[in-house]
What we know:
It is a single chain. This protein has one helix at 29-33; strands at residues 12-13, 21-22, 38-44, 53-58, 79-83, 89-91, 106-112, 121-126, 132-134, 142-150, 162-167, 170-175, 190-196, 203-208, 214-220, 225-229. By secondary structure, the chain is mainly beta. It has a 4-stranded antiparallel beta sheet with strand order 3-4-5-6. A 4-stranded antiparallel beta sheet has the order 12-11-14-15, with no helix packed on it. The chain has a 3-stranded antiparallel beta sheet with strand order 7-8-9, with no helix packed on it. The longest helix is centred in the first third of the chain and has 5 residues, at 29-33. The model has no long low-confidence stretch (mean pLDDT 91).
Amino acid sequence: MTAFDAEYHSLFINHGTLPFEHSTIQSGMAHLTMQYVGWGTHFLDYDNDGIMDLMTVTGHVNKVVGLTRPNVTYKERPLLLRNNGKGIFRNMEESAGPVFRSQYDAWGLAVGDYDNDGDTDAIFICLQDRPVLLRNNIGQDNAWIGFQLVGTQSNRDAIGSKLTFRFGSRKLVRWITGGASIFSSHDRPMIFGPGTKPGPRTVSVEIRWPHGENQTVTGLTPNQYHRIVEPTEAKK
């Protein structure tokens, strides 16, 4: 949950039962976000290591805020925060590219694989400038597999579907959601990153469709997209 400057962006961990755990301080999020006004934000596995990282775009609402608060600026840096797999985040500004060391009046953020090379790219809009398109050049260094779901009994975009991807002893779970950040909407295809290449030879995915049916698809080849259509009739 993003917030204003002098507040920290909050992270709540779901352990499967209520209540959620407030993990903002333990995760490092408080220290990393305190000075920023956060807008568009999204979890994404930018390096395809199977662990969800976080990107947030920022920008103040007061153009002259720096006149009275020298540690706060109107234009601010976008944040790419890498997850170490234990819920601890680190700012990747030094290695993520010059955009993450520059300042913008950015609000909306959308993510998706615009060049279809198997990793998650991003674009964000600025209030008084052109949009900024970020091409990911690291995710394809690891194995990946992509899915585009097509609903028949459920809604066409399969919003609300749960995908469970298994390889070896690992299990990754993703949901297809309809919500996005302000002024933007994310790409629908889903990418899973099993980690280092060459990765498994074949993989399987379990899909729980919004209409209620469970489907398992096996023998899928990594490093490509797979289009999966919801069965038109439930299995007897």
